[in-house]
Amino acid sequence: MGTFRLVDPDPGFQRSFLDAADEFVASGQPSYAGIVHLPEAGVVFTREGLEEPAEFARLVAYLLGDRREDSPRPDGWVPATVKWIVEDDEYVGRVSLRHRLTPDLLTWGGHIGYGVRPSARGRGAATYALRAMLEVAGGRGIARALVTCDVDNEASRRTIERNGGVYEDTREGKLRYWVRTRP
Q1: Domain of 10: which CATH number?
Q2: Host domain of residue 41
Q3: Phi and psi (nearest 5°) for 56?
Q4: Rounded to the nearest 5 degrees, what angle is found at the Cα of 47, between the Cα atoms of 36 and 173?
């Protein structure tokens, strides 16, 4: 085991990203695979297409561009900063910071979401990534970040609580926690 770090999406992680995507799909969690499919915004990637380096570079450019207010996204979606969690130069997951909350995000999505590939779980990657992304949120002027998880996701609940999450309530099957971004 190496040291976790957050990095900007980068074409150099193509192979381990795709391996992780396959793991997420095989474990029944395709929504965590990171393959963007937003036809309503004209942004569609496929697992097969991402085997091509140019197409993978296009995905990376899209993810980096999503930080901008004017990037293409479905109506009601907000800009987001996506970082990749890497260990020993291998992609192990992603964490994203939504720059502001909409009514839907206030109910179930929150400011920060994360996903760690199944083979890398249980080693602290999510705890590290949430802590590091809270610093990014603080740098964006977000004093308290909303982080949510499914009511039956014990590991995610512990991750949020380890990072100082204070439970507020449960809505639509989501536990809702507020986490200070600065001490």
Answers
A1: 3.40.630.30
A2: 4-180
A3: -65, -40
A4: 50
